[in-house]
Amino acid sequence: MIATVLLSIGIVFLAELGDKSQLMALTFALRYRWWVVLGGIATASAAIHLLSVGVGYFLGSALPTTAISLVAALVFLGVGIWTLREHFTADGDEDPAPKSLRASTAPFFVVLSAFLLAELGDRTMFATAALATDYDWIGVWIGSTIGMVTADALAIGIGILVGKHVPERAIGIGSGLLFLYFGAATLVSTAAPTVGGPIVAALALIAPALGGAAMLLLRARRPAPSVPDQQSPAPVTDPELRR
User: Fold this and answer.
1) CA dist., res. 58 & res. 83, Å (int)
2) Would residue 15 count as lying in a domain?
3) C-alpha atoms less than 13 angstroms from C-alpha of 110 in its C-beta half-sphere
4) CA-to-CA distance for 118 and 91, rounded, in angstroms?
C-alpha cells in the first residue's frame, strides 16, 4: 500500500504542475487567507478523488469524459468572467476591504465548490480513476489527495510571494484572462477533438480577447464620479464689513 501511495503522489503531483487548478489556487490565495484556501482544496481533493477512485475501481474508469469536460470548460469560463468583472469594475487599484472579508462571507465554501466543479473532467481525475483499476483504491485515494494538495500548496506559496510585489488587481486581471483561455481551449478541444493543438490554442485566444475588450467597454461606459460643487462664499450683510 505504501508503494501505491507514493506512486499516486508522484503521478498526481507531476500532473498538477502547470495545471489549471494551480492557477485557481494562486488566484484564491490573493483573495483569502492561505489556510482557508488550502483547507478548501484539501476537502475538495479528498471528495473528488474518492469519487474518481470509486468509479475507476467499480466501473473500470468508465467516465463520461465529454460531458465532464464540457462542465469543466463552462466552470473556467464562468470563473474568468467573474474575476475580470470584479477587477475591471473596481474604482481604485487597491481594495479597502480586509482580505478575509473580500468577495464572500464564506470563503471556504467558495473555494470548496469551485474546486469540486473545476476538478470534474481534469486530467488528474482520469489518472486517479485509471490507477484505481490496477492498484489498491485506498492507497490511490490517499496518495492522489496528498499529491494534489502539495502541488496546489506550492501555487499558494507562489501567489503569496507574487502578491507582495505585483498589484493584486493586475494579477487578478491576468488570472481572469487565463481562465477564459483555458475554458475556451477545453471547450474547443472537447467539441472538435480532431482539431490540432495549434489551432485550438489560436481559437482559444479569442475568448480572453473578447472578454478583456468587453470589460474595458463596460468600464468606459460607467458614469464618471460626480465632483461636489464648491460652495460660494456667503454674501456680506454687515455694512461695517463692506467698507
Assistant:
1) 38
2) yes
3) 20
4) 30
Distance CA 163, CA 158 (A): 8
The closest alpha carbon to 123, from 190, 215, 179, 177, belongs to: 190
Residues 228, 82: Cα–Cα separation, whole Å: 33
64 in a domain, yes or no?
Answer: yes
Comparing 235 with 88, the larger pLDDT belongs to 88
Q: Specify the pLDDT at position 229.
A: 54
In a 13 Å sphere around the CA of 221, the CA atoms on its Cβ side amount to 6
* Residue 32 reports pLDDT greater than 70: yes
What is the per-residue burial (b if ≥16 Cβ within 10 Å, else e) of 25-48? bbbbbbbbeeebbbbbbbbbbbeb
For 119-158, write each residue's pLDDT tens digit: 776 777 778 888 887 888 899 999 999 999 999 999 888 8
142 inside domain: yes
Calpha distance 204→68 (Å, rounded): 19
Q: Which helix (H) or strand (E) holds 87?
A: helix 65-88
233 falls within a domain:
no
Q: How many domains does the chain have?
A: 1
| pTM of the complete model | 0.67
Domain that holds residue 6: 2-220
